[in-house]
Amino acid sequence: MKRKSSSSPEPISRKLAKVGDYCYETPTCMPNGDPIWPAPLSHLSTAREFLKECASSQEKTLIVPDKDADGLSSGVIIHRTLVKLGLNPKHLDVHLVQKGSNIHEEYERKLMLATRPKFVIVLDQGSRKGPPVLDDGEARSLIIDHHLSDEFPENALVVSACHYPPVATTALTTYEICKELHPDIAVECGYLCAIGTHGDLGNTLKWLPPFPDMTETFKKYTKKLINDCVSYINAPRRTGTYDVITAWKALLDAKDPKEIMSNQRLALARQEINEEVERKTHTPPKFSKDGKVAVLNISSQAQVHPVIATRWASHLKAKSLEIVMVANHGYLPGKVNFSCRIARCARGRDPPVNIIESLKAVANLDTTDLVQRLGENFARGHKEASGGIINAAEFEELCLLMKVGEKPDKPEGTKKKVEKSPQKNTLSNYFKKS
Fold it and tell me: φ and ψ at 184, to 5 degrees?
């Protein structure tokens, strides 16, 4: 089998089947036919009560959003909602996790605890089993998320959209919660919902039911403007300096998307990332022996591996290809940060490609203790977009298990074709003519 692997992505064939819009996924419904979306109504109601109690308490409140457009947008929606409900802004604080870190790391937990909050709202951070968000029995925590998980920190109130298709982003779930708490939120935070949602689901989303009707938002702000804002907000956290605070302040201070686009620090960050993506994106892929995984190895202090994975997944095509993996060996010392995306040519297959299950299946091929050594930061995220942060040695073991770079076995019974000479004027032909 010959695989396509040029030094840069090639345009995908127009003959590929069109992928249905994200909103076409059939929602889970209650007995009366109403969709359970974006999460069970009881969970949404509990979250609203939590936010109302938080605002009325006038106590220290810590918002802990993820670093991307979805997480930061949901954080600003929460911030504005609490202020609308009467919470004095002086009681509001934000905690942004450090480069390559997460809220479960001990040093992050200590930093959050040091602010002495009574209420903690964790947004889009990914969920796993663990101790309470804070080591403070009096602190109450709310988690809003959409990453695939059935386990969460102890004692937390949880609103997770991960089991209720079409799965809403965290910003969208937060918007659905908060717009019922104050009449201004639907109008003033609609563009934030759009930025966060487009940040995770892409710029071709149709916004069909059960997604909310965003007609008025897109009348005021074009989808191009929203998508440009996504690029601006995502850029600082991708830079080597990991300047997430600039993106947070830009979103928090801006009254509309046009103000975001006038931020020069965001513009410079986007330019830096665009240039780095262009430098690193031409790395040729190597394939696993079965042809299902294409692996690209890069080294960059910038978080460009997810962008490059998305780009190659949209263009690279091969009969057996399912997953594109981009591994960044330069983002964190001694670690490999990798991002996986489903190849466009593999979308719509039956059964559907599940990156998390595929990664775990590879790890389980090992007969020693690799699964334990990979730890909790392996195969996190979504079925369609996953990745991890693991030691360089363990990543090499994964590649060996996938047999990356090895040629596929030839099918049994196939004989090597003998190429015929294209030459016509052979000696035998010459003597026949004479």
Answer: -80, -20
